[in-house]
Amino acid sequence: MKSRRRPYSEQHPFDAGGGVWSVPVPIPGNPLGYTLVYAIESPAGPVLVDAGWNHPEAWLALREGLGAVGMDVREVRGVVVTHFHPDHAGLAGRVREESGAWIAMHEADAALVRLMHDLEESAHRDFQADMLRRAGAGAVEVEEATGHRPRPPAVPDLILQDGDLVDLPGRRLRTVWTPGHTPGHVCLHLEDADRLFTGDHVLPAITPHIGIYPYDRADVDPLGDFLDSLEKVKGLGELEALPAHEWIFQDTAARAAEIGVHHEEKLRRLTALLGEAQEPLTIWEVASRMTWNRPWEELPPMLRGMAAGEAAAHLRTLEVRGMIRRMAGADPVRFVLHS
């Protein structure tokens, strides 16, 4: 079954078959348009995969969308959050308030949610500003790109680990840990139907943002984790994919392979870019010279910050592979081809 990407105004809840329903929930002011929330039937009440953005319009769409397919949000048994981003986890707390549902999340993302709740808004802005400065952004760019964060999502009740079965009576929904897009991103394998809820890990036409924060961290490799996670999903076989954006599609393994090739090509281009440079480059300089969906000069401050995070993740993978090195003691941090 396919439901090709259309504007949110043309989206409607629909029967995805096998006791699974798809409910589009809008993301106001975001070009992605909407999140596809899935409701899985069970004798003890439906379990949701993700919940959508925390906004009155989104809440209305979720509540009415469930109603349109014969479900009541007050009867929801639980919400499995594929990852902590606000377009996925934002409404989970509201669902819990209405129904008493549990919220489940992988332990790595749950730790980030707890950290977000503990972090003062001023501390968050200081963190952003210092990160941007160390990446090589100018003072004006730092000021423009430092903004307010969304409200943190609800702290989960249940912690998931790789291989855990979700509390879904009558079905077998297994947690597949797929770090990369976030440290605790999970896909969910509906084993009794050979289907995979892919969250943002594998999408049919676009690729998820893979960033590193702070940009100059040298103790993690999110793109390397993401590429490993693609291999993990490929190993599950030709499953039908139910992603959080765009449309349902066939053969998750084939699409995972395509995305891996895309990032390897991006790494090759980045290596060439560093080789052509006359001097070591900052993360910000690298990002400004990479190819995005529009010219760097046209990217708004928030998207420049995300581009820098993506550039940093690719630089870090090249560093781990021994292709490049960072200049010792440089502030802002700079990278050069490994000699």
Please describe what this structure looks like:
This protein is an alpha/beta fold and 339 residues long. The protein has a single domain, classed as Ribonuclease Z/Hydroxyacylglutathione hydrolase-like (Metallo-beta-lactamase, Chain A, 4-Layer Sandwich), CATH 3.60.15.10. It contains 10 helices and 14 strands. It has helices at residues 56-68, 86-89, 92-99, 107-118, 121-135, 139-145, 222-234, 252-276, 283-289, 301-320; strands at residues 14-17, 20-26, 34-40, 47-49, 78-80, 102-106, 158-160, 173-177, 186-190, 195-199, 240-243, 281-282, 324-326, 334-337. The strands form 3 sheets. It has a 7-stranded mixed beta sheet with strand order 1-2-3-4-5-6-7. The protein has a 4-stranded mixed beta sheet with strand order 8-9-10-11, with no helix packed on it. A 3-stranded antiparallel beta sheet has the order 12-14-13. Strand 8 and strand 9 form a beta hairpin. Helix 5 (121-135) packs antiparallel against helix 6 and helix 8 packs across helix 10 (301-320).
